[in-house]
Amino acid sequence: MTSITNEKLAQRLMVALDYPDDASAREMIRKLEGIPCYMKVGMQLFYQAGPKFVEELKSLGYSVFLDLKMHDIPNTVKSGANSITKLGVDMFNVHAAGGSAMMSAAMQGVEEALAADSSLKRPWVIAVTQLTSTNELTMNEEIGIPGSVEDAVIRYAKLTAAAGLDGVVASPLEAEGIKSACGADFLTVTPGIRPAGSAADDQSRTKTPGQAINGGCDYIVVGRPITAAADPRAAALQILAEMEHGQA
Ligand SMILES: O=C(O)c1cc(=O)[nH]c(=O)n1[C@@H]1O[C@H](COP(=O)(O)O)[C@@H](O)[C@H]1O
User: Fold this and answer.
1) Are 164 and 107 in contact (CB under 8 A)?
2) 26, 40, 115, 147: which has the highest count of C-beta atoms within 10 A?
3) Residue 119 CA, ligand 1 centroid: distance in Å
């Protein structure tokens, strides 16, 4: 049976609270009560529920990944990162496609917030490489990046590491390559997680929770396989069990 107090696993499952309002998100949080996990707040929920909801999650004791995927000119991303750091989140992201000046500016925004308020904790800052919904055909023919997705992801990961960020968002297929290119301590946060037999939905590059953990992913991000399940609590426990035992 899964030990739901296992702190290590608690730091490795991130539940994507992709909901249109705080009431619906709260209902899911209630169903998952006692299950150790990060909570991920994305654009849909944050644009409706805002900083207050982040505060609520923090007061409930959750670690929070604020997934707003910033991608703008360096000065704007620096200011955004500064504001996000003041929210007290544990992790946030930018797009690596914004380039190294933009990513360094994000880090500067974080540092300035910390310098102004010593009670703040430094959040992990990570960069999205190629979205897990992207396949090679789309990347080559629509986005205009040649070569394999893995090569493009690793190129972005190296750029991200050089800019001083803590890690990347990538698919579980690329985690091993990222670790060998950027070092074991460079974080791999991986959506595109689908338990065996579940629908891929709009994800293109997927692995099961067990395969992801075996493949060196540090954190796995799971939305619909938990939130759209008939019994979300059972689905989350099943994923934790698979993570713990490393089953495919
Ligand atoms: O940054 C992210 O979290 C992210 C990056 C990416 O490349 N792919 C991706 O799916 N995500 C997010 O991860 C979650 C995956 O949700 P499900 O597909 O429902 O498991 C969603 O909230 C996405 O916004």
Assistant:
1) yes
2) 40
3) 30
Give the H/E segment covering residue 53.
helix 43-59
Rg (CA), the chain: 17
Q: Would you say how long the chain is, in residues?
A: 248
**Ligand 1 mutation pick, 93, 221, 224, max ligand atoms within 8 A of CB:** 221
User: Which neighbouring-strand residues pair with 219?
Assistant: 189
Q: How far is the CA of 192 from the centre of ligand 1 (A)?
A: 7
d(CA 149, CA 155): 10
Containing H/E element for 43?
helix 43-59
* End-to-end Cα, the chain, rounded Å: 17
pLDDT at 4: 39
How is residue 121 annotated by DSSP? P
pTM of the model: 0.95
ipTM of the prediction: 0.99
